[in-house]
Amino acid sequence: MQSKNNKQDWENVLNSEMWELDVFEKTLSPALLLSYYDLPPPLKRCFSYCAVFPKDHTIQIDDLIKLWMAQSYLDSKSDGEMETIVREYFENLAARSFFQDFEKDDKGNIVRCKMHDIVHDFAQFLTNNECLIVEDDCENLKTNLSLQKGRHATVIVHGSTRFSFSVNKARNLHTLLVVSDNGCKIDSFPLDSFQQLKYLRAMDLRGNDSIVELPREVGEFIHLRYLNLSRCRALKTLPETICGLCNLQTLDVRLCLGLRKLPQGMGNLVNLRHFLFTYYEEFSEQINLAKGVGRLTSLRTLPFFIVSDECKIEDMRNLKELRGRLEIRGLVNVKDAEKAEKAELKNKKHLHGLTLHFTTGRMQERMKKVAKALQPHPNLKSLSIVQYQVREWPRWMMEPSLLQLTHLLLSHIACQCLPPLGELPLLENLNIQYMPRVKYVGGEFLGSSSAIAFPRLKHLGFSEMQEWEIWEVKEEGRKVMPSLLSLKISASPKLATLPDLLQTLLQK
């Protein structure tokens, strides 16, 4: 009703014949049907699709958005970023109370939610058995499904069991989700029988420890757009045939501990928008991005870019649509600054988080030039610089160029002084770790061009500053850190006292 702006619209709802329908007398509310029919067609499809989730299931919003995209539920006339449009679909449905029990991140965005049982029953009613939920238990319960009509299926596995789901009648499935109840283990999964599922658009096999490798026949799933293999810890390889999935939008191999190598033809996945994997700091042998990653011009999500002999820093040039957070590692392998400049980080306006992870080495002059060439776009909101073993900051750190920055981490830095971070107008969180050459912090830290130094800074932390002896803060007629809420200093044994101004602020 919140979208109804005049008396006539309200009266139309009041006088609707739907209030008289007998089918709702005992089971469902006619108000739900009225709300449903008030939705535009794309939102109707998105809502009814949610019947594929079990009751009381915690829905991950990012996954839901990618699943809706895989089913091509967007309005064909829509202009703009696909993920943004589908996110608006979800927020519209959430505003109409089709979802509940929202969990939000620190920015207020909904990241998880549930559906009320009554709403779930209504969604199931609307799908007319197109969305199926199958219980498979330790007794190898045989599934009795009318899958000729079924389009979307979720299989719930209880306990440690051999998977008994038959796909003989499931040839028309568009979605297959496998849910391990309470993290239970699936001992055996019949991937060899999946050749018949030629119409699959989304397949989620996460948490399946029985999968060591995918059959090469997966390359025949030409309609597949969403493939989630996260937490398949025994998975060692992906078949080269997977690179023939030209419609694939999402590939998720996070927490696949055994996966060390990617197919060489990854560059052929021209419609891939989200490639999710995990980098393990403690492992000497890591996943290296395959040659040709620079051809993935549709990529929106890439958590790590690891520079290697096969994957050059200049391959980032064409990844213009990258969004979210990106960590660049292996910068020691960048041969010269010209190649680093070709990455065009300063043009990647959609990135909001960036980590530059340098590697300890003796090539200081080269790393200095490389760091200068890796200047981020001014829109950046979060920045981490790690293992920067050069004694001078890149010029873009000494100038107030990152005016949108809210979070900054400096860790294991060889510079002898701090940059003028007080001139960053939106900086809220600043964490400085292990800068063994810093002995004095003074006016250079506050900067000199702004009337208020650190106007938005709320949380400030220093740790492992072993040689730090003196910290001076001189107001000189301007405010300093007026928004500060917390200050944490640890493992800095030579720092004897805090500036009087900070002591006064923290006592308020």
UniProtKB/TrEMBL annotation:
Q: Give the matching SUPFAM superfamilies.
A: L domain-like
* Domain Disease resistance R13L4/SHOC-2-like LRR: residue ranges: 184-492
Source organism superkingdom: Eukaryota
Q: Which Pfam families does the protein's record reference?
A: LRR_14, WHD_DRP
**Is Transcription regulation given among the entry's keywords?**
no
- Looking at the record, the residues that make up the Disease resistance protein winged helix domain are 52-123
Q: Where are the transmembrane segments?
A: none
**Family matches, as Gene3D superfamilies:** Ribonuclease Inhibitor (3.80.10.10), Winged helix-like DNA-binding domain superfamily/Winged helix DNA-binding domain (1.10.10.10)
Report keywords, A-Z.
Answer: Plant defense, Repeat
Q: Which PANTHER family match?
A: DISEASE RESISTANCE RPP13-LIKE PROTEIN 1, LEUCINE-RICH REPEAT-CONTAINING PROTEIN 57
What is the name attached to this protein's record?
Disease resistance RPP13-like protein 1
| Species of provenance | Vitis vinifera (Grape)
